[in-house]
Predict the 3D structure of the following.
Amino acid sequence: MAKPSPQCVKCTVHRCSSKEKNQTVPASCPSEKYPDLVKETREKYQLPENRAVIQGWLGLMSKVLDPQKQNEKYTWTRIHEIIEYAKIRGMKRLGIATCYALMPEAKMLSDILESSGFEVVSLSCLCGEVNPQDLGMPGDIFCNPIMQAEVLNRERTDLNIMVGLCVGHDILFLRHCTAETTPLIVKDRALGHNPVAALYQSQGFFKDRFAGR
Ligand code: SF4
């Protein structure tokens, strides 16, 4: 019988985060269900392009969690972390893919990145705007996240930063981007782009809001 699909969120063993490796894990544990992938992915970790990313992350963590600077622990904002990651990786040219509605935020980000010594290429999601009628769809104007990605590919940015792209547009953008890409802002129109707040509220004031959705 096929093993059930992974449900890490329901696991109570957490052998993966423990030094005790003899523990029995659920049959659904991905490490048990897919031993071939454990081997394959560990090998992929060794590929130069993947090692480079991990080295960047490691360098970043060594600063974020520097035991010599206890007072700075947990004081790094996401923007600081992206800047540090890019510097550690020797990146010079950063791309911003922004929603047109977050242009002021993207401008602030661009200014910060430029003052940190980076060249910045920024693109609104409406660049290369699409006429929905050409797609047989309703509406006045469509964004073109594929254009955003392809322009950044041509501009040869080292790292792209996503700023408030809609659900769906972000999927198309990521599908077509060739450079490393990280999100800074994910759009949440109701919560000031802080989607995790819905989870924190889901056991309280928002309790009924997600029922049956
Ligand atoms: S990887 Fe395995 S041990 Fe770790 S949380 Fe998932 S099911 Fe549990």
Summary: The mean pLDDT is 96. Residues 8, 11, 13-16, 25-26, 29-31 surround iron/sulfur cluster (CB under 6 Å).
